[in-house]
Each structure stands twice: as C-alpha cells, then as structure tokens.
Amino acid sequence: MIYSYLLGLFSSILREQANLTHDGPKWIVLDGDIDPMWIESLNTVMDDNKVLTLASSERVALTPSMRLLFEDRVKDSSGESPSLKETLQHPLDTLMESRDSPGNPFPSGDPSPPPVWFNFRSESHSSQAVKRTSQTFRRRTHGWLQNSYVASWIDRRQHQSEKANLTILFDKYVPVCLDKLRTSFKTITSIPENSLVQTICTLLECLLTPENVPSDSPKEVYEVYFVFACIWAFGGTLLQDQLSGYQAEFSWWWHKEMKAVKFPSQGTIFDYYLDHKTKKFMPWADKIPQFMMDSDAPLQRVVVHTSETTRLRYFIELLLEKGQPLMLVGNAGVGKTVFVGDMLASLSEDYIVSRVPFNYYTTSAALQGVLEKPLEKKAGRNYGPGGNKKLIYFIDDMNMPAVDLYGTVQPHTLIRQHIDYGHWYDRQKVMLKEIHSCQYIACMNPKVGSFTINPRLQRHFTVFAFNFPSLDALNTIYSQILSFHFQQQAFASSVLRSGPTLIQATIAFHQMMTRNFLPTAIKFHYLFNLRDLSNIFQGVDSRVLLQQPLIYCHFANGREDPCYMPVKDWEVLKTFLTETLENYNELNAAMHLVLFEDAMQHV
Ligand SMILES: Nc1ncnc2c1ncn2[C@@H]1O[C@H](COP(=O)(O)OP(=O)(O)O)[C@@H](O)[C@H]1O
Ligand SMILES: [Mg+2]
C-alpha cells in the first residue's frame, strides 16, 4: 500500500463497490504496513458508523455486503500511536469474542460477519488481542504453511515414483537442517524459514529435468540431486567472514551427519558441483571460465572468475531462467555489483536489463518512474518490455532507502506489490496496470542502511551469501590481472618474476590491516576490502615501475609538510640533500659526504 495516493485509490474503490447493487460479498483487501496516519482516517469506517468521510465532505457508507480485509505483519509496536492500537483493538476484540475460529473469514451459519478482518503474522505486539489473534494464526499456519507448500509442490510433479522419493527426502533432510540452522548457524541476513524451503523446491525444479533424471531413475539419483539442492538452499545463505565461518561449520556438520551421499573429503561441500552425466561431485574449479580482459576497461569493472563466482553464476543462471527473484547479500566491496553487472552483460538478447541503484533518497514514486521507463503499453491495462523480451531489474543496494516514521520502506512496498500481485497503480489516473515479463535481481549489504528488509518482501528472494573471496580466490584474481597487464606492457622478465611476491605481499598487508584495524563505532570507516586491493593494482603501471629514480621518501617535496611521495628527479633531491647537509654541518661537527647517486639511494 502506497499511502501518498492511498486515499484517492481507496476511496474510489470503496465508492465503486458501494455503488454495486447486487448483494453478493465484496471484499477490499488492504495488504501492507498499517500506519496510524491513514488508519485514523478509516476510524469511522471501522467503528459502528461504517462510513467514510472524504476531505470533500462526501460521505460513502459501507453496504452490508462489503468487507475490508487487512493483511499485515505486526511489527514491534514501540513506534505506533495509541490511536492505532485503539482502532485495531475494537474490531479485533469483537472478532475474538464473536468467533471461535478467528482464522476463518467465511464462517458458516453466521448471518452477520463483522465488516473488518485481519490476517496478521506477528513476532511481538503489545495489544493483547492482536497477540492472541496472531498466535492463533501462527499455530494454524506455521508448520502447515511449510508442509502444504512442499506438499502441493510435490503434487505438481509428474511421476508417481518421483513424488514418493521426494516426500521421503523432504522428511529426511529438511527438519534436521532447519533445526540445526536455528540452533547453530547464522544466515547472512534474516531469511524466513519457509523461504529456505521454497528455495529447495525451486532448485529441484531446475535440476530434476527429464534429461538429468529420467522418470525411472533409482532413488539414489533423486537423493544426490536433493542433497545438492539442500546444501545450497541452506548452506548458500550462511555467513562466512573474519570472525565466523558458518559455511565451513555447516560443511563439517554435513560430512559428519549426512553420510548417504558421499562427498570428496578435500575442502568443503561447497567446492563441488553435481555432474549430470556421472552423478558424481566434481570440483567447481574445473568449470572456471578463461579470464579475458579488455585492456581499456578500468580495473574497477573487471571480474576475474574464481570458483566462488563460478558456482554463484551457475545457480543464478538456473534461477533466472525460471524468473525466480534473487538476492546476493554481502559486505561492502566484496564484488557484488561488478559480478552481477558482468553476468547480466553476458545474457542473451532475450533479456533487457534495467539497473536500479537505490540510495537513501529513493522514494516509491521515483522508483515507479524508473521501473516504468523500459515498459511498453500492450493491450488493455497490460504493460511489459518491448517484443517478446524479458526484463530484469537489477536493484542494487536494496536496503539503502530511508525507513519512514512508521517503519515502512516505501520503495520496498511497491516491489512487493509487484511480485505478489503482478501489478501497480497509475498514480494520476488511479488505475490498475498489470506488469508482465519482469523479474528482479537484488544486492544488499547487511551492515548498512536499514540492515534488513521487510520479511514479506525478503521471503520472495532466493538468497546467496556473497562472502569476501578466500585467499586462493584473491590470489587468482590479482595474479590474472597482473600477468595480463605485464604481458600487455611487455615488462622485463625480472619484473614478471616479482609478480607473485607482489601479490602475496599485498594480500598479507591487507590481512594485517583488517586484523589490526578493526572497525569500531567511531572508526567505522576502517573497512578494507577488494576496492583497496584493486586500487593498489590499478596503480601498477610501467611508467611507475620503470621510473628512475624509484625512490619514495617523506621529504620528496623539500621542506613542505612531510608527505610520502616519489622523488621526481635526481637534481631536486640532490639540492635538498646538499642544503640539509650544509645546515647540519653548521650546527654539528662537520660531516664530509660526497653525494653521488648511490649515496642518495642509500639516504
Ligand atoms: N572477481 C573479481 N575480479 C576482479 N575484481 C574484483 C572481483 N571481485 C571484486 N573485485 C573488485 O572489487 C571492487 C569492489 O566491488 P563492488 O562490486 O563495487 O563491491 P560491492 O558491490 O560488493 O560493494 C571492484 O571494483 C573490483 O575491482
Ligand atoms: Mg555495490
């Protein structure tokens, strides 16, 4: 619900329904964050008056066959006004008293159901009635939601033997994994459990094709595929950084507990992909594409493929094909933006990509403008990308926009509305627009902005953690870049030989920096990432390396403020040193130095 034009929209829908003459039930579903500003204007609709008074003093009365259904996640109520609680309290209390089955909006044999219904999911709320309602909902829907999703997914599979195998496998693996995840591991951002389970289904849907798994396959084959999907749905979301290595721990745990499907013992379970031909696990390292670099491209935009990027790419390509929303979550400067940019640039011509970088000031209206730009009007109220193409919105830094006074990030509600319902409204004409053939890929850094996003939006996305590259990967990235560069510029062989040492020294130095200069509340800028590393190598240029003299000192600029800079030429240095020597000789016992080049290098 986007409340900048809500009342226009809401009042026009209300008026439309009030004017309908038939007495069949009419529902208005209000799906989204409830905030006190607009709920207050609905006060008279929700109490016994059942009348909406508009600013123009027009009055629209609810007819007996009209119902409002509110759907929301109940947030922590600390920021909510007393009037919101009161407004909600009254209908909820009547609801609780009058009904023994609060989850059912269509109770049988009830001649006059109340006009307002709620469908809430809640973690905490101080209003007792809301708490009670939401608990009832949770009890009824929680386990049920997961299983019913899985059950209906399995039901849609074609072959009987596959259905039977999958049912056994879900029971065998999923509850154990969820349990372990709850108690021992941490995902990179908070992800609803149901969404993890959905990811398994989505991955299986991509993997269990008739070519990979013909319908008469033995149960062992289903199990290998299931295991592959399961470790990526769960393990792919786990946090792995300097302080905690949940992916590594997950891998140990898996090796220890899940023995039915054998993994090679070297490395972690995340180092292997499932080979469709042999049904064996093979190292991702074998699949890394050859490095190609455009020598004109700025280094900041170059991507060197590593086994980490290769495996992410594999899954992203699988899921993009299905139109599944995707999200990469990782700290600043780990390479999310360049990686997604590189991947989207290599897609076939069937796709159009629209880049939508978010920042603090992104509003839902501005976002809608950007989202609508690549769309064309089709028949009726339908809109979509031109031709038969598919449009990918690349939302970068998803969690950056401002959180409003009542805890809502308005651009997020627009995206959720689109994913949930496939539509949004024309803001001027207050008319529905159906938006087709679009999908989302998003990135975010869980340490900035609003940190997390609304779980009702988050749940749609398949999440992969994008962790800082391993030592091996760092080595690969910079060796490839450096050796390409050295070849291009025809460096002397002595320089070529020093390449690996240079990289090792840089990486070791980077590690020392990150270990010794930890960010704190005050020194929050102590973040050292791939941007710093890339900046070092960006500077490596033949003019610099072969420059004579290759001397850096803090008095390169003479008597000005000390600053560590390269010496421009011998003459300047010589004049400065001679002067300094003369000064010294005046004040101290004379020192007779002859300043020739070697001596100066020594200084
Ligand atoms: N696989 C890679 N190969 C080469 N450079 C990389 C790679 N991954 C990251 N980088 C470097 O890291 C820098 C930061 O990446 P960026 O995508 O801006 O990070 P994020 O979006 O995660 O904050 C890039 O400018 C790039 O130079
Ligand atoms: Mg970025």
UniProtKB/TrEMBL annotation:
GO BP terms in the entry: microtubule-based movement
Gene Ontology CC annotations of this record: dynein complex
Alphabetized Gene3D superfamilies for the sequence: 1.10.472.130, 1.20.920.30, P-loop containing nucleotide triphosphate hydrolases
Dynein heavy chain AAA 5 extension domain mapped to chain residues: 168-286
GO molecular function: dynein intermediate chain binding; dynein light intermediate chain binding
Listed Pro residues bias regions: 104-114
Lineage top rank: taxon: Eukaryota
Pfam families linked: AAA_7 (PF12775), AAA_lid_1 (PF17857), Dynein_AAA_lid (PF17852)
Dynein heavy chain 3 AAA+ lid domain sequence ranges: 502-540
Segments of this protein annotated with the region Disordered: 95-114
Cross-referenced PANTHER family: DYNEIN AXONEMAL HEAVY CHAIN 11, DYNEIN HEAVY CHAIN
Protein's name according to its UniProt entry: Dynein heavy chain 11
Organism name: Camelus dromedarius
Taxon lineage: Eukaryota, Metazoa, Chordata, Craniata, Vertebrata
